[in-house]
């Protein structure tokens, strides 16, 4: 199942969720009405048929139904609204603490490194990272409405018990949920579950009436009746819990198998995700959580949040099944015994290692950041064979492999240390502005003056210092710098983000022209800000292809074609024709042409194209790839432009790394 099919499946699953929710509400309303009729209804005359009972109490039953439906609906809406801040709200609800870039905890530092590498490799924005410090079991989750407001949280037990390889498997599993669009559905599920549980809360409140009833006989009888009704609502609430768990189980189980498979394909190492699952099976705490909110989030966890949950209502497949899916040779008795011995030896060596680790950390802090052993710098982008480019890149959209992870790690290591520190701090905005500073001295002076006016002389002086250091950022590093800066930017005041957005537009306009990459970078930045400022915004992916969309596609492919042609109009027309051939196999495509004010025109069209259905988006991305690859080569500049424009359409394209003809052909043939 590829990325675009996942999007379609998520939309169909949402409809299925709505249907199950409606059926659950109807069932609860019927039971509540029966109880209301029994406890509060006027009894029918002797010998009257049951229908008469309903008819005589119709107004009461209608009122009861309206209250039940409204109560469940409002409770669900309240829970979803309370989580409108995105993934961070979910993590904080469970007691998570955000991992800041300046953390000195080596386990937290390792977690941040792994998350950043996986994010860059998969072509998604770097999410916020949280640790559930009070949870000693092994578990994790990803939450949010979109890739731009996502948060990844792991338990302290995950950090303490898993090695880096296993942690990478868990993080890759969670990124599969992020990329596949599972998170928005998960938050909707939280609202559904909370709504179905609200009757239990109301019932508990009503049972207290017995303690506050009046002293008269009538008052006590009324209190007893209300308390009895409250007890009944608690029982009905149990029905809501059942429906909630049934809905979560129906939606969640198969997605966990898919996410496990994605993690294996991504890491090319079954022992990464398999090792984490085996350690859950080994440890007494397993994956069970202590938080009282576990019921609400159980469907989005890496492994079951309840130690005893199994069967029809289980949100996750049995551990042994998940392990066998990635390791068919798994023998529980043999493998878990061997793992227990390894854990024992690890614990025995920990005391000695801690002293050495402290000394190493002190040396590392004074000696600068160490490199990654065995990793060489990323060489220049080689030409890719035309026949394999489309299949290779689209295969990476479906599932990036471990080379992307390694390439992301190397790319981060190549960044200047001060710039890496800046993207992780309150200087993240300056790091974004640094990407837009012109090489032309006159334009640069105007841009620095603009920064001084908007952000003060100190900010302009900081940028001047970075420019004086003469860092050379390769084209493949510019987009990752923006992506690395996003977590820090998310936590800045809204007014600062709006001011930064205005400064970005002003710097781009200083030279009187807009390069294609400047445009793509600005669109990507603005798109992320929109998602961050309005995480629970309207769904994308409902629009049909009409004349308006066709014009947008024509403009997009024309700009892409011209960008790679470097002034050669014949080459641009050939590139455009190659892209349009993907979309128009029989009919005559619209003619090549760039609007006079293409940044404004395309800027208006991109949000509309972002609303295409997943199937049509896939065709558009295929056409974009065919356009840039028409001459049999994709250099770094074209690759990063492709990634930026695709990201503006919310299609994550992983890092496009140096690939030999044989390697790309092999990847393309794998499909």
From TrEMBL:
Q: Which domain of life is it from?
A: Bacteria
Tell me which cofactor or cofactors this protein depends on.
Answer: Zn(2+)
Q: Does the keyword Zinc-finger apply?
A: no
* Species per Swiss-Prot/TrEMBL record: Alkalispirillum mobile
Mind telling me which residue stretches traverse the membrane in this protein? 15-40, 60-81, 189-211, 223-247
Q: What is this protein called?
A: Peptidase M48-like protein
Regions of biased composition (Basic and acidic residues) lie at 341-364
Keywords from the UniProt entry: Cell membrane, Hydrolase, Membrane, Metal-binding, Metalloprotease, Protease, Transmembrane, Transmembrane helix, Zinc
């Amino acid at each position: 199942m590829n990325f675009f099919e996942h999007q379609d499946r998520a939309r169909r699953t949402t409809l299925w969720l709505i249907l199950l929710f409606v059926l659950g509400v109807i069932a609860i309303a019927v039971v509540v009405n029966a109880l209301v009729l029994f406890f509060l209804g006027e009894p029918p005359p002797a010998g009257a048929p049951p229908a008469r009972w309903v008819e005589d109490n119709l107004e009461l039953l209608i009122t009861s139904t309206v209250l039940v439906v409204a109560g469940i609906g409002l409770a669900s809406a309240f829970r979803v609204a309370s989580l409108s801040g995105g993934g961070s709200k979910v993590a904080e609800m469970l007691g998570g603490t955000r991992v800041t870039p300046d953390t000195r905890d080596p386990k937290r530092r390792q977690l941040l490194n792994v998350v950043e590498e996986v994010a860059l490799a998969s072509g998604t924005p770097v999410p916020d990272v949280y640790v559930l410090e009070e949870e000693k079991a092994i578990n994790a989750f990803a939450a949010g409405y979109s890739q731009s407001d996502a948060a990844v949280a792991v338990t302290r037990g995950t950090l303490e018990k898993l090695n880096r390889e296993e942690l990478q498997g868990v993080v890759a599993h969670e990124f599969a949920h992020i990329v596949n669009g599972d998170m928005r559905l998960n938050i909707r599920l939280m609202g559904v579950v909370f709504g179905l549980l609200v009757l239990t809360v109301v019932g508990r409140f009503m049972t207290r009436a017995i303690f506050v009833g009046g002293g008269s006989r009538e008052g006590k009888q009324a209190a007893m009746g209300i308390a009895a009704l409250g007890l009944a609502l608690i029982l009905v609430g149990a029905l809501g819990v059942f429906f909630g768990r049934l809905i979560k189980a129906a939606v969640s189980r198969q997605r966990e198998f898919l996410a496990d498979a994605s993690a294996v394909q991504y890491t090319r190492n079954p022992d990464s995700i398999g090792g984490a699952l085996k350690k859950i099976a080994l440890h007494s705490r397993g994956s069970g959580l202590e938080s009282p909110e576990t019921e609400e989030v159980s469907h989005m966890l890496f492994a079951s949040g309840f130690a005893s949950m199994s069967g029809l209502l289980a949100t996750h497949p049995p551990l042994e099944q998940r392990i066998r899916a990635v390791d068919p040779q798994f023998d529980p008795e043999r493998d878990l015994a061997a793992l227990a011995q390894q854990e024992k030896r690890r614990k025995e060596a920990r005391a000695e290692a801690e002293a050495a680790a402290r000394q190493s950390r002190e040396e590392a802090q004074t000696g600068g950041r160490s490199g990654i052993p065995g990793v060489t710098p990323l060489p220049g982008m080689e030409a890719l064979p035309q026949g394999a480019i489309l299949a290779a890149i689209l295969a990476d959209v479906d599932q990036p492999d471990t080379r992307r992870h390694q390439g992301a790690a190397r790319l981060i290591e190549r960044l200047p240390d001060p710039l890496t520190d800046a993207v992780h701090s309150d200087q993240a905005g300056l790091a974004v502005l640094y990407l837009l500073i012109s090489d032309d001295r006159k334009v640069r002076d105007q841009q620095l003056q603009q920064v001084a006016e908007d952000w003060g002389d100190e900010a302009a002086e900081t940028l001047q210092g970075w420019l004086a250091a003469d860092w050379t950022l390769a084209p493949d590093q510019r987009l990752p710098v923006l992506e690395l800066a996003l977590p820090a930017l998310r936590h800045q005041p809204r007014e600062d983000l709006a001011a930064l957005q205005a400064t970005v537009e002003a710097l781009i306009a200083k030279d009187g022209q807009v390069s294609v990459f400047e445009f793509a970078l600005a669109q990507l930045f603005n798109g992320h800000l929109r998602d961050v400022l309005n995480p629970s915004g309207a769904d994308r992916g409902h629009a049909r292809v009409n004349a308006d969309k066709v014009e947008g596609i024509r403009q997009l492919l024309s700009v892409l074609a011209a960008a790679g042609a470097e002034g050669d109009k014949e080459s641009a027309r050939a590139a455009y024709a190659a892209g349009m051939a993907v979309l128009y196999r029989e009919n005559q495509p619209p003619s090549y042409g760039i609007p006079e004010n293409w940044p404004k025109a395309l800027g208006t069209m991109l949000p509309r194209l972002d609303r295409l259905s997943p199937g049509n988006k896939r065709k558009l991305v295929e056409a974009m790839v065919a356009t840039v690859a028409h001459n049999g080569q994709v250099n770094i500049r074209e690759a990063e432009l492709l990634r930026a424009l695709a990201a503006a359409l919310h299609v994550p394209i992983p890092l496009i790394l140096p690939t030999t003809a044989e390697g790309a052909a092999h990847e393309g043939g794998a499909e």
